[in-house]
Amino acid sequence: MILLTGATNFIGRAVLQILRRAELPVRILLEPSAESPALPVGMPADVSVASLSDSRSVRSALVGITQIIHIGSGYYSSNPDEIWLESEGTTTLARAAREASVSHLVYLSHLGADRLSAYPVLRAKALGEGAIRKSGIPHTIVRAGLVYGVGDSFTSILAALVLRIPFVTMLPGNPDTLAQPLWVQELAVTIQWILEEERMINRTIEIGGPEFLSLREMAFLVQQQLGRKSYLLALSPPVLKFITPLFTPWLLGQEGGEFWVDYFAVDRTTELDAMPRLLGIQPSRMGDCLEYLEHFK
To answer: What pLDDT was estimated at residue 119?
Structure first.
């Protein structure tokens, strides 16, 4: 049986859908919460409620588990509690998985993960990577580029900015900063494939989409999909750091935009042929996968 963490975030939901379509047995690890989990409708799965900060409950959740997919508690989160769980929780999970003789742990990390990074999420991911390697558990670390798709925060924020604020779309910092957008469905398929491949054990791989796109170009693709056009205005990071916590809940009804101010401070790219060469998967171009934004109109 596979244990899946992070099944309530947009990447985790996509991974759960892929696993269930393949009729693989899945157990979801849910953090205790007063809110109802945002799980895919019609996707049955075993559920274990356990905090990654509690080693005893994690060990209990691992009974009968042979493989783990660790998406994490907040892939694009700026919440300090979720960032803490990303590093400390991953350490707890890796140790418990080693004790339980789990055969393979797949961990989703970020391009740019670094213990010395100026950005908390990237530091937390690097610490998580280190904890997994140190534990000695058979593992694969997947450093992915910008992931987009249904339920994300990036294209959703861009779409809301385009539709709700006339004449101008605000972008963080340098609009020519490059990313390598990867469609969430293809990432989910990749993770499932890696879990089943022994040759990927004890490797760290970096993957992204098939094109380098600037923030400006991605915003233009969103505008095209929505049939709207507005002036792209680059704002300095300090200004955006101030206004984003105010704007994002109004745009999306929730928090989550602060991360992107940091994310686009530098280019986030890897080799363009990484997925075809390493995995035999040809990822899709971003402009071909944005139909889901139609519901924003």
So the answer is: 80
